Amino acid sequence: MICCELEYDPSLSFLAGPYAMNPTRPESDPTRAAPAVDLSLMDEVVARYRGQRGAIIPMLQAAQAIYGYLPRPVLELIARVTQTSLSKVYGVATFYAQFYLQPRGRHVLKLCDGTACHVKGTPKLLTALQDAYQLEPGKTSADGQLTLEIVYCLGSCALAPVAVLDGQVMGHMRQEALLRQLRRRLGAGRETAGGDGATTVEDVHASAMSVPLSAHSE
Ligand code: FES
User: Fold this and answer.
1) Among the four 67, 91, 99, 190, which has the fewest Cβ within 10 Å?
2) Mean pLDDT over the full length of the chain
3) Number of domains the chain is built from
4) How far is the centre of ligand 1, averaged over its atoms, from the C-alpha of 129 (Å)?
5) Residue 10 in this model has a pLDDT that exceeds 80
6) What is the CATH number of the domain that holds 170?
7) What is the DSSP letter of 217?
């Protein structure tokens, strides 16, 4: 498979991820203790794929389903089990948008910033999020509750601007409606969205509009 030909070269800055040795990054500090990872949770997965060099992707998927992301010890384990190099496993994990090398928040908000959504107001949504939660794209809030990700067209441009919160689609999103949905989801408020022109999840479902959530996010 093409993806299995990918090799990670630490000298290539554009591939430098959270595991690259970089003295300015706290996670690369050799004196810093790595978070404990219970590799026994992978026992069943290891038994299923041991020695299968082509099993990198299913093992990565299984590991992420277990841990929520891909800790380095798990990547090392997968490299050993599939009898391949860590750089190759890392190359696969960084190639696909479905894989995460760092923990994500309990809730994940995706904002579409494709052309239609950008024109219809995504920048204002981003400003509202930064003001309310000091949340930047690609980052997780300090309390670990919310991760913000930017995607580029979910195939529902007629609903622009579109936000997806924990897999639920919200179209025609406006700042106040978005913040209300977040407060409700994060448990800090009891309001419900609607009444200001935003199309809620229920509205989207009622109109039977389909949004392909499997769209590539990068
Ligand atoms: S640009 Fe956002 S759904 Fe198409």
Assistant:
1) 190
2) 77
3) 2
4) 19
5) no
6) 3.40.30.10
7) -
Q: Is residue 154 lining ligand 1, measured as CB closer than 6 Å?
A: yes
CB atoms within 10 A of CB 134: 10
216 lies in some domain: no
Whether 203 shows a pLDDT value over 80: the answer reads no
Q: Of 154, 70, 166, 73, whose CA–CA distance to 118 is shortest?
A: 154
Instruction: Assess whether the C-beta atom of 181 lies below 6 angstroms from ligand 1.
Output: no
Q: Are strands 146-151 and 163-165 parallel, antiparallel or unpaired?
A: unpaired
Residue 126, domain member (yes or no): yes
Q: What are the pLDDT digits (tens) for 117-146? A: 999 999 999 999 999 999 889 888 888 899
pTM of this prediction? Answer: 0.59
Structure tokens at 32: 């810093």
Which of 95, 123, 140 is the endpoint of a domain? 95
Answer yes or no: is 147 within a domain: yes
Domain coverage including residue 73: 2-31+38-95
